Structure formats: structure tokens, C-alpha cells
């Protein structure tokens, strides 16, 4: 027993030394883990090993695949960067001229080429989105690719599975990628239905006792691609609560945001699905050589990105991007397989710092890191109208406590907060009637640093205005957050908020 205690104590202090001298995270994150180790010696050590994200032993394979994919897009991003440099003062679309720095950031850091949408339809309610998506799945003639964080074995999930099985039996290529932790309550037999019907299902990073360190890295993306012509993406998972038809009447009103896209941007979303789909087998087969990565992909790599190494095709793409009838889009991703992991957060910060009039944000969780927090503060001190909408009904008490301390401090700076009457799960940002983004990324450390996330950035005045009015309409169903209310709470409660804020970098 004494030997075990000695080994545990040694490991505990070794972990503290690692945090003090070798941890690569920011200071706030390091201090939060140190606090956990000090206050919860045994539990803190286990949580750090499992949840800190610093012991992800198989990152090499993901990095190889990501590098391979980004290498395919390099000719496109290089050509577009040169175009922006040459035509800096004479870009055909004013929004792209105003946000050239944001476009360049996404081209360089995220290797996200500019592409375009022929149409964008925004959904504010899951039930409306499911009606259209299910109808188009029913009409599909070639392929259906779905990637989701959560899929439940309920009415909505069963309806989708029924449609997918039907289309697989008709001979379509049907693939379903689900996050194993997000869908952990869904029985495996639910997915086997599609395998038996001729489709394919895969769990992303299976949660197994042999692979405990994978539990922290979850695929939070939501993508559907139908016939390579239509795509859906945003914040809506697959389940009754997202469609507001849950049998549990105590469930709050669920407000979410998703978009339906057509145009060449669909191919960018399809590429993200391909990468994630072919990433999954890396857990089963160790790759020792970089060239082995190509074996994961179809021989025709144009399926990954159709414009690679074809200057004429790239020129055609640029002409369509700057056409007055198209909407320029950049599809950006972030995750632990990326070199920087913060591509989406950096894009959001760039949008905030570029704002001159207003920034409106919707998020279900609000525990920003120091960089994001300071960007908001600088923006409001610079005269920008910064408004943030969060839920009135929170699903995690500790996240609510940490968020309330952030909200209280930023209210003092002049930022306006709104509590949506229900649970708002939307992840959106719109600024200055010019640029907007919708995706899967929450304003918290988990989304910024650990999850696999995806956002689309739209450079279009008309679309941005429509997204602004969605926010303003949601205000009608919200309560204005009052600094007086926060300051009048019992001092012990405010102390609890401050305590949980200390741990917000690791929540």
C-alpha cells in the first residue's frame, strides 16, 4: 500500500512540475489545472491526464492527414493570395475589400480557399430544417453524407435512419459519421441497421478503456451533403429536442441556427466530411510513412478538392466568386489535428477587431479565453455596439456560474447581454451588415482548443443584414441582463461565480 501511495504521490508532483515548466497552454489554463491538482489531488490528476488534451498519443496520424489535405489546396490558396495582393484596392466586391485581412487570415492559417454559394437559406428552428433536409434526402439520387455530434434513438433519429436505410437499399452511397461520446446513449444496434441496408456507419474516436485519452477530443461538426449539390451545416444535432418535439414537456424551447447551401462551397464541406471519414481508421492502423496517408483517400483526389493544380479552373472559380449573384464563402475548420488549433477563434477575433459599428453574437456557452475576452473589451471601448445572447435556461450549472462572472465583468465594460427565454444553441456572429458566420463553435475553451469544429464565413451584405434581423427578432423573446441584478446577488453566490470562472479554461 505504501508503494502505491508513493507512486501516486510521485506522479502527482511530476504532473505539477510538468504544468509549471513544460505545459504549452496559456497561463489561465495552466493555473486552472494547477488549482484542480491542488484542491483535488487524486481526481485532479486523473482529470488532467484524460481531459487536458496534452496526452493525445495519436495526433501524428491526424496531422499527417490534415497536412496531406491542405497540401492539395495550396495551389488554390496561393493563387487567391496573389490575386488579393494585386487587386487589393480594386476588388470587385466591396465586402471582400473591407475584409481582406480576414480572408487572408483564413487563407494562410486555415488554408481555407474562397469559394461561393449560389444560395443560402438560414433556419432558426430545427423542425423547419429537418422538414427540408428529410425531403431532400428522400429525393437524393447519388449520395448522402452525414456527420453529426449527436444522433438520438428517438422519433427524429429513427425517421432519419429509416430514410437512410431506404436510400442505401436503392443503391445510393450513404455514409453516417457520428461522435462516439456525443451519441454514447444511442445503442450500437441503431447504427447497424444502416450497415445491414448497404450503407456505412463509423463512430468518431470510439470511447474504449484501451483508448481513454481519446475521450477528450470530440467531433462537434454537423454536416450533411446530398448528391454533392446541397449541404446543410450549423449547430443542429439529430434528436427530438432539436426539433422541439421531445416527449419531455419540461424541456425548454430549443432555438438553434443552421444553413442550407448550394454552389461550389458544397464541395468544401464534402471535403471536410471526407477527411473526417478517412481519419477514423487511423485508430486501427498505425501509419509510419507520410505517403501512406494517400491510401485512405479515393484515387481521384479531386473528390477532396476539385481545383487542385488547375490554374484555369482556379481562374473560373475566382470569376464566380466575384459574380454579383454569388455569395463568397470560406469554410474554416479547427481541431487538435491542426498546427494552431485556433483557426476559428482567430477568425472570430479578427471579425470583432474589424468591426466599426456593431458585433452581435449568439452562443449557448460563454467562457471565453483571455484573447477573446480582450477582443470584446477592446471593441466596446472603441465605440462598437457589442451584444451577446446566451440562454436563460442553462443545461450545465457550472458553465452557467463561470459564464455569469464573465457576463458581470463585461457588463461593466458596456457590452449588452440578453438571456434568451429557453435554450439558445445557435453559434453565430454578424458584424456591420457585411460579414457573418454560422457553425458549430461555442465561445468556450473546449470549442476553441479541443473539439473538431467547423464554421462558414459569409461575405455578403444582404445575408449579413438578414442575420442581424434574426438577432434583433430574438431580442423580443429575451430578457436584458442587468448589471444591477448581478451586483445585487448574495456575496456568497458571486463568490461561487468567481470560483467557477477560475476553472473556465478547463470546463
Automatic annotation (TrEMBL):
E.C. number(s) listed in UniProt: 2.7.8.-
GO annotation terms (biological process): cardiolipin biosynthetic process
Principal subcellular localization: membrane
SMART domains linked to this entry: PLDc
GO molecular function, one term: cardiolipin synthase activity
One of the record's GO cellular component terms: plasma membrane
Membrane topology: Multi-pass membrane protein
All residue ranges annotated as the PLD phosphodiesterase domain in the record: 215-242, 420-447
Record keyword Transcription regulation present: no
InterPro entries: Cardiolipin_synthase, CLS_N, PLD-like_dom, PLipase_D/transphosphatidylase
Keyword annotations from UniProtKB, A to Z: Cell membrane, Lipid biosynthesis, Lipid metabolism, Membrane, Phospholipid biosynthesis, Phospholipid metabolism, Repeat, Transferase, Transmembrane, Transmembrane helix
Protein location: Cell membrane
A Pfam family of this chain: PLDc_N
Keyword NADP annotated: no
Annotated SUPFAM superfamilies: Phospholipase D/nuclease
PROSITE patterns listed in its UniProt record: PLD
TM spans (from-to): 6-22, 31-51
NCBIfam families (alphabetical): bac_cardiolipin
Name by which UniProt lists this protein: Cardiolipin synthase
Organism: Candidatus Treponema excrementipullorum
Amino acid at each position: 500500500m505504501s508503494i502505491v501511495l508513493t507512486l501516486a504521490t510521485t506522479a502527482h508532483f511530476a504532473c505539477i512540475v510538468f504544468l509549471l515548466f513544460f505545459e504549452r497552454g496559456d497561463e489561465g489554463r495552466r493555473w486552472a489545472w494547477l488549482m484542480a491538482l491542488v484542491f483535488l489531488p487524486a481526481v485532479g490528476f486523473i482529470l488532467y491526464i484524460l481531459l487536458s488534451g496534452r496526452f493525445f498519443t495519436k495526433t501524428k496520424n491526424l496531422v499527417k492527414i490534415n497536412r496531406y489535405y491542405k497540401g492539395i489546396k495550396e495551389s488554390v490558396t496561393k493563387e487567391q493570395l496573389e490575386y488579393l495582393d494585386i487587386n487589393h484596392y480594386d476588388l470587385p466586391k466591396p465586402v471582400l475589400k473591407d475584409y481582406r485581412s480576414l480572408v487572408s487570415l483564413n487563407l494562410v492559417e486555415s488554408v481555407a480557399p474562397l469559394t461561393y454559394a449560389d444560395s443560402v437559406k438560414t433556419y432558426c428552428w430545427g423542425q423547419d430544417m429537418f422538414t427540408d433536409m428529410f425531403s431532400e434526402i428522400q429525393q437524393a439520387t447519388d449520395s448522402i453524407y452525414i456527420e453529426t455530434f449527436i444522433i438520438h434513438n428517438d422519433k427524429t433519429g429513427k425517421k432519419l435512419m429509416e430514410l437512410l436505410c431506404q436510400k442505401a437499399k436503392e443503391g445510393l452511397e450513404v455514409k453516417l459519421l457520428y461522435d462516439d461520446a456525443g451519441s454514447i446513449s444511442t445503442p450500437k444496434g441503431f447504427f447497424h441497421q444502416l450497415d445491414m441496408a448497404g450503407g456505412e456507419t463509423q463512430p468518431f474516436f470510439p470511447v474504449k478503456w484501451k483508448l481513454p485519452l481519446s475521450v477528450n477530443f470530440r467531433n462537434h461538426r454537423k454536416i450533411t451533403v446530398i448528391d454533392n449539390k446541397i449541404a446543410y451545416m450549423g449547430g443542429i444535432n439529430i434528436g427530438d429536442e432539436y426539433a422541439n418535439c421531445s416527449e419531455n414537456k419540461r424541456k425548454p424551447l430549443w432555438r438553434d441556427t443552421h444553413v442550407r447551401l448550394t454552389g461550389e462551397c458544397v464541395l468544401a464541406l464534402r471535403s471536410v466530411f471526407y477527411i473526417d471519414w478517412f481519419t477514423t481508421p487511423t485508430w486501427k492502423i498505425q501509419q509510419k510513412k507520410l505517403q501512406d496517408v494517400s491510401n485512405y483517400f479515393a484515387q481521384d483526389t479531386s473528390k477532396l478538392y476539385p481545383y487542385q493544380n488547375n490554374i484555369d479552373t482556379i481562374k473560373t472559380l475566382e470569376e464566380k466568386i466575384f459574380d454579383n449573384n454569388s455569395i463568397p464563402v470560406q469554410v474554416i475548420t479547427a481541431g487538435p489535428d491542426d498546427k494552431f488549433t485556433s483557426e476559428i477563434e482567430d477568425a472570430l477575433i479578427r471579425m470583432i477587431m474589424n468591426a466599426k459599428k456593431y458585433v452581435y453574437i449568439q452562443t449557448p456557452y460563454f467562457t471565453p479565453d483571455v484573447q477573446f475576452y480582450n477582443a470584446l473589451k477592446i471593441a466596446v471601448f472603441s465605440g462598437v455596439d457589442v451584444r451577446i445572447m446566451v440562454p436563460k435556461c442553462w443545461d450545465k450549472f457550472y458553465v452557467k456560474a463561470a459564464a455569469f462572472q464573465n457576463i458581470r465583468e463585461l457588463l461593466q465594460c458596456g457590452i449588452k447581454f440578453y438571456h434568451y427565454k429557453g435554450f439558445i444553441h445557435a453559434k453565430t456572429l454578424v458584424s456591420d451588415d457585411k460579414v457573418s458566420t454560422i457553425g458549430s463553435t461555442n465561445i468556450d475553451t473546449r470549442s476553441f482548443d479541443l473539439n473538431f469544429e467547423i464554421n462558414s464565413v459569409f461575405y455578403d451584405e444582404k445575408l449579413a443584414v438578414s442575420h442581424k434581423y434574426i438577432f434583433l427578432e430574438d431580442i423580443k423573446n429575451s430578457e436584458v441582463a442587468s448589471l444591477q441584478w448581478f451586483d445585487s446577488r448574495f456575496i456568497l453566490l458571486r463568490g461561487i461565480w468567481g470560483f467557477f470562472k477560475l476553472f473556465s479554461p478547463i470546463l
